[in-house]
Amino acid sequence: MAQSSESALAKILSAKRSGAVIDHAQPSLIAAASVSRRADPPQVALLRDAVRRQCKVRISYQDAKGATSDRTIWPIAIVYFDEVRVLAAWCERRSAFRHFRVDRVQVTTISDERYPGRRQALVTKWREQDRDWRAMLTDSGRSGGYVRSDDFGSAPTSEEK
User: Would residue 50 count as lying in a domain?
Assistant: First the structure.
């Protein structure tokens, strides 16, 4: 499914270059797997709306060890894996892109304040920073279907938490 979506995006962008009028903004959702029948947690709809509106979001995030931290993020995309959804966002606290499992996110506040710049530019920077983000799209064979946050190469160290 990931290859098909990339192929479709390439065709759309090609049509755009040939003069067709198409909005080629980066998608706010990225499908990494297609076999899951798992329903999204309720906060996904709020996060998806914040991605579309490019709004800052205040969250409370619980890491794998159960430690909770409060953060202000700029959500740019939701990645769908077999059994987990991951929010890609700029984290103001870390001044870096981070990945958050949406089942561990509690949305505290969705601000009316838009984050600076355009989401498309942030997605491009995120992809450049995480050159191996495509590896995430094909790594669905883990037990339980979950991907550890440190698999994304940007999980905070114990000193950062």
Answer: yes
Residue type, 110: I
Structure tokens at 34: 């297609």
Average pLDDT over residues 39-56: 94
Q: How far is CA 149 from CA 19, 25, 98, 153, in A?
A: 41, 27, 9, 8
Q: Write out pLDDT tens, residues 7-23.
A: 655 656 665 565 544 44
Residue 89 lies in a domain: yes
List of E strands, 39-161: 55-62, 68-80, 85-91, 96-101, 105-114
Residue 8 lies in a domain: no
Query: Which range marks the domain in which residue 38 is found?
Result: 25-138
Number of folded domains that form the chain: 1
The pTM score is 0.63
Pick left, alpha or beta for residue 131 (phi over 0 → left; psi -120 to 50 → alpha; otherwise beta).
alpha
**Assigned domain for 41 exists:** yes
83-108 pLDDT per residue, tens? 889 999 999 999 999 999 999 999 99
Residue type at position 122 = L
